[in-house]
Structures are given as structure tokens and as C-alpha cells.
Amino acid sequence: MADRSLELVDCGHRACGGCGPAFAARLILKGSGSNSIVCAATGCMEVFSTPYPQTAWKVPWIHSLFQNAAAVASGVESALKHQGRDEHVLCICGDGSTFDIGMLCISGAFERGHNITYICYDNEAYMNTGIQRSGATPFDANTTTSPVGKNSLGNSRPKKDLPRILAAHGAPYVATCSIAYPNDVIKKVERAVNTQGPCYIQIHTPCCTGWGYDGSRTIEMGKLAIETGLFVSFEMVNGKIEKVKKVKRKPVEEYLKEQKRFSHLFKPKPNLEEIAKIQAIADANAEIYGIDLKI
Amino acid sequence: MSLRVGCAAQPGQARSNKTGSWRVFCPAFDHDKCTSCGMCQLVCPEGCIEKDNEKFVPDYDFCKGCGICAHECPAEAITMETEEK
Amino acid sequence: MKVILEGSHAIAEAVRLSKPDVISAYPITPQTHIVERLAEMVADGDLDAEYICVESEFSALSACLGASAAGSRVYSATSSQGLLFMAEVCFNVAGMRQPIVMSIANRAISAPLSIWNDQQDSIALRDSGWIQVYAEDVQETFDLHLLAYRVAEDHRVLLPVFVCFDGYYISHTYEPVDILDIDEVNAFIPPYEPVNKLDASNPLSMGMYATPEYYMEFRYEIDKAMENAALVIKEAGSEFGKRFGRDYSKHVESYFLEDAEIALVAMGSVCGTIKDAIDLMRKDGKKVGLLKIRTFRPFPATEIKEALKDVTKVGVLEKNVSLGTRMKGAVGLEVKDAIGNSGIEVMSYVTGLGGRDIKIEDIIRMTESLENGIGDCFFGLREELL
Questions:
Q1: What pLDDT is stored for residue C112 in this prediction?
Q2: Per CATH, is B20-82 categorized as 3.30.420.40?
Q3: How far is CA A49 from CA A41, A43, A74, A291, C55, in A?
């Protein structure tokens, strides 16, 4: 049973006030426990938690490069296997590292079936370097490399469906969750670390600085993402979708209008055509995952 | 203080960085309204809210004043006030 | 026990005797026979190691890093494109002071694509913080792998090692080699005891980032470890000699340098050919000698200066080219620097690139060029193609 009282990420780290990933870090380790080894990627969480010598981590932690956490974890797991040790091997990486530059290493690690848990904290852009677009950036989001301009309405591609890509690699357990439902995060992490084989968890971690909202509303943003159907919380066991969080769906405007990164869709007046495209994404999610509560 | 080989460090050293100095707003806890649900302690991104005799108290050395606890408290027992320097 | 083995297989024996916990390697010509033989050994239970078939060289070295940080001895091997692909990880491994030993079957670098030998790959990473040793023959390649683990894991060093040997000339050549037995090797290489280790019972954060207040001192510490490595290599090399009869206590080896007026300098298998050429030139009365460099990093400047102090001309045979430089060769530049302002003329000859054969006649002609003051150039170009 996960020990919810465990605080394995110390105070004194340099995350923005209201940081979604910082919250996620605490929850992850409540789920995994002190018998864990964390392999981190370069990114917000790594940078705010480990400027030499002020580390915030109270479990063994290693950072190598931006893209290779999954490969480093493969090596750690193999070493532990050979030494007969039982620590949980976790990767904790941002969406930039996971969806883009790290794809090679992740695909290899999952194909080889290492007993690791790969956790992606998804704040939907390269936040640490100043809010650049990643493969996880949602459609029409304004980032510095997919900026809104005369010829652009922001990011022109939908979010990459990484959970199902990794399920297709044969991952026994794949789950998505949100910091808006913290006990759900803890439970899913606990299940993943206790499942043999490569497991993937994607945690939606709103970023007040990058998305443009007041830091006190991080959990509220997370809830709105789920309630509008733009982020789905589900579990996949051996490739089959089980347990989806059902919602009484809200229109996507209620989520989009709260964030500066989507403010161009509402100025000078609501761009109904674009918003409809985003609504269609939410509707498609609802259909694929069955998130609508039948009343 | 000499370097540790390989740029490694032991736990506990982040605490020398007192992020409480960042605050613009400060959470004030009304212990009479508090129902001891523990939500504030769970959701604080810093993990700096401690339990003290069934009530909850932030460690003001580290509280950044983000306001999540105030926003999420079901009993509305936390209010954000301007930080007095 | 003396057997006739292909170079790659002799290396696999050396790795087996070194008892790594984790082997993570990606195949690339001409190193493939090493990783294949190791896979066979694991499959047959002759080597108790986790064998990771990684999906790229980048992951090969990254997995080694993770396993090493978790307290295991590791092994990998690569060449050319693979080494360059993992170059980012190489710098990272050295900075994180992980004592990883990696075989480099030296091979030319694309473009153009070439699977044949030259030393550009490892030389391109001379700034990475890895110790680099170059072997002349299969026996030396075998021995240097054992020496590498011993030196790398020494707490005064804690640096990774490239054991370099010419692709095909060594990797695919059958030679007699004395394979030591496991008790002999166990006595020479103590068990790996890491300084930093990922261990839940004693948590550490490894690979933190360093602000400007700290970064430079970390880099300085690596350089200091390189200086320590120079001593530890000699120490361990000397012990190797006492135990097994083959001495590695010097970073360089001389052949007929005592009365030489002209010295040829080289690394790797070409030294054998140079020795044959010297024997012929000596018959004609030419006072030529060879200085073979075995340790390239840390660069043995003092030993080189001492060994060459009585010659008048030095010709450095380079299987690499530092494109866009005056001197052309990377090794010659450092040899020239080591010798300093002595009046000794030092010239580089870039040759043998992409597996171009270096014959005894080529070395004789090169020596003549050196005598005529022509050098710091590509040597042996096919003029009809230009």
C-alpha cells in the first residue's frame, strides 16, 4: 500500500509557485515509495530540483542527458537484476523529452520489456527552455516556436497519442492521469511500479507560467482539461482500455478561455471555426474512450 | 566545501534555499474553520504544509504563496493576504 | 594458455575474464564479432552477464552509464559512426566519472561512408575525458582491456577508457595470443567498488547541473584525474608485467631509437609495418627508429620529449586528419608541442585513411620525404584522381 504521508521531494526547490510538475513529483514518490531509483531527463523538474549541491530528492536519482532516461533506466534495471536488488526503477521525464527527442530510447526500452515505470509529466511544451512546442502541445496552442501571427493560429498539429503507441509495444500497463485527481495519480503509479514489465504513465501537469493562468488555479485547470474531454484519464491493461474517468462534459471554451496560450481564439471575438475544431478533438476523445457519463 | 566527484550530492541540501522569500501573497490559516481533511497538505506543490495537533500549518520558510491551498480548501479556511515584509 | 584467435574473439575472452555484470552493445562493422561472441558466451552460460540488445549506440552507452551508476561493471564496443552517435554520452560519462571500458575497433568516418580502418573516430573524441590506449597487435589488445578495467576503477582515476585497435587489421586477424586464466585476472582486477552508487539505502543525486560557480572546478577535477591516470597506468602496467611477463609500465615504446637521427611516430597496428621498414632502412645505413605511442590520453608529453631528445627529424604517421589545419595531423601537433623549442623538426603525414594499405615502401618513401623537409601533408594520394 502506498504511503501517502511520505515526502520524498524536499522543500527548497526552485519550481514556480503553483507548479504542476512539482506537485506531480511528490505524488509519484508517494506511489512508488522510498525503495525507488529515479532516472530523470533534462527539463523543468530536473533543473528546479538539482542545482549542485542543493538536491531536493530523497531517493536515489540520476540525470544523464535530455533524451536517454529510458536507456539509462534500462541499464539500471539490468544492473539491479544482476545484483539481485528490488528497487523500483522509474523514469520521470517531461513531454519534450518523452514525445520527441527520447522516442528512440523509449521505444527500445519498451520493446525489450525492461521492468521499469516511465512517467511523463506532461505540461504540453518545452517549458524549461521557455515554452517551445513539443509533440504533446495541443492543437492551436500558442508557443514561442508555434506562435500566433498573421499566418498562424498556433500549433497546427494534434497531440501525439503516445499512450497507445507504447501500449502497442506490449506494455502491460499504460495509464493517463492528472494532478487534478491526486489520489488517482498515486494509485496508478503504485500499480505501475508493482506491474512486471515496462509501464507508462502520462500525468497531465498544468503549467501556470507556460499556459498563462494564475498559479493558484493549477488543479482547477487540470479538472477543466478532463471535464472538457481534451485530456482523458484512463488505464490500458495489456493493450485494452479499462477504467476511463467519465465526466459530465463541458464545452471546450470553458477550458480554453482561461489560458493565455489560447487567448488568440477569443480576440477580438471568439473564433468559432477554430474552437469547433478543438471541440471536434474533444468529441473524438469522448467517442474513442467513452468518457461521457450516461445520465 | 570540496566538490563531490561526478557532480553528485546527498539529500537534504535543497532546504538551505529558503523559497519563502519569494512570497508576494501569504496564506492565512483559519483553524476554527479547518475540518482537518488534509487536502492542503496533499496539494501543496512544495510539500511544506505540516500537521500540528490535527490542524495544518505551512512552513513559511518555504511557502511560495502560490495560493493552491486556498483555492482548493473545501472549508474555505485559507485566505491569501498580501505578504508583510 | 596460448591459442590462435581472431582479434575480436580475443577481446571477447578479455571481457569474459573481466566479469562485467552488464553488456550493452549495438553491432557495427568491424566490431560485430566481439559482441556476437559475447552473446554466445552468455547464451551458453559461459559468461554471467545481462546482455542488452540496445536499439542504438546512443542507448548502448546510456545503458552502460545507468548500470555503472547502479554499481555494476559494464562493457560496450563500437566504431566510427557509432562512436560519433554516442559522442554526447561519452562526454557525459566522463563528467559523471563512470569507469566504463569500451572497445573501439577504429574505423573511418562518413562521409564518404567507409567501413575500413583509420583512427579518426577515437581521435575525434580526444577532448572527451576518456583515457585512450592504442594496441599494436591482438595480444596487446587483449592485455589492454584487462589493464583498462584496473585503471578505470581505481579511485584515484574513475575515468572511462577507450581501448583502441585498428579495425580489420586487429579485429579480423588471427594471431597467437596468451589468454590468461580467471584466477590470474581476479588477482589483477579487484571487484568494482563505486564511489557514488544508486542505492535506496543510501540515496544520492547523481548528474546534477552545475552553475557557473561550480562547473569549471568539476572539469578541472577530470583533468586532475587524467594526470593521476598517467601514474596509475604505469603502476598497473608494471604489475601486469611482473605477474604475466608483458610489461605495460611505459606510455610509449621505442624501437631502434637509441642512436636514431630520424624518428617515426605512430599508434596502432601500423607500428608493426614500420618496424619492418626500419629493419630494411637500417640495412641501408639509415639511422631510423620508431616511437610507438600506446597511451594517447593522457598524452605522455614528458616521455615523448625524453624519447625523442636526440633525433633531428620526427615524422608522425597519422591515420587521421584535422581538416583545415596547417599541420593536418592531430597527433603530430601534440608531439610537436611536447618536444617544444628544441630545433627538432616535426612533420605530420596523413595516410592510410579509409583503410588505404600502408606498405613498407610507403614508409620508406615517407622517411625520404621527411629527410627532404616535405611533410605536414596528405601522403600517398592517387594523383590521377585529383
A1: 97
A2: no
A3: 12, 10, 23, 36, 30
Q: Is the pLDDT of residue A2 over 80?
A: no
pTM metric for this prediction: 0.96
Work out the minimum CA distance from C268 to partner chain B, whole angstroms: 31
Nearest-angstrom CA–CA distance, C240 and C294:
15
Lowest mean pLDDT among A1-10, A250-259, C57-66, C210-219: A1-10
Q: Where are the domains of chain A?
A: 20-289
Q: Is residue C208 within 8 angstroms of chain B, CB to CB? A: yes
Burial-class residue A273 by CB neighbours within 10 Å (0-12, 13-18, 19+). exposed
User: Element (H or E) spanning A75, and its range?
Assistant: helix A69-83
Q: How many CB pairs under 8 A join B and C?
A: 43
**Please, which chains are in contact with A (at least 3 CB pairs closer than 8 A)?**
B, C
pLDDT in tens, C16-51: 999 999 999 899 999 999 999 999 999 999 999 999
**Would you state the CATH architecture of domain A20-289?**
3-Layer(aba) Sandwich (3.40)
* DSSP-derived secondary structure letter, A57: B
pLDDT digits 0-9 by tens, C112-141: 999 999 999 999 999 999 999 999 999 999
* Contact flag A111-C55 (C-beta cutoff 8 Å): yes
- Whether B71 sits inside 8 A of A217 (CB atoms) is yes
Interface of C with A in 12-71 (CB under 8 A): 21-22, 24, 48-50, 52-56, 58-59, 62-71
C221 contacts B5? CB cut-off 8 A? yes
Q: Is the ipTM of this complex over 0.90?
A: yes
Closest to C299 measured CA to CA, from C332, C345, C258: C332
Among A10, A19, A182, select the one facing B15 at the smallest CB separation: A10
Sheet of C22-24: strand order equals C50-52, C22-24, C74-78, C101-106, C161-166, C131-134, C295-297
Neighbours of C22 (CB within 10 A): 29
Cβ–Cβ under 8 Å, residues A72 and A118? no
User: Does residue C364 sit at the A interface (CB-CB below 8 Å)?
Assistant: no
All domains of chain C, ordered by start, with CATH?
Answer: 2-244 (3.40.50.970), 252-385 (3.40.50.920)
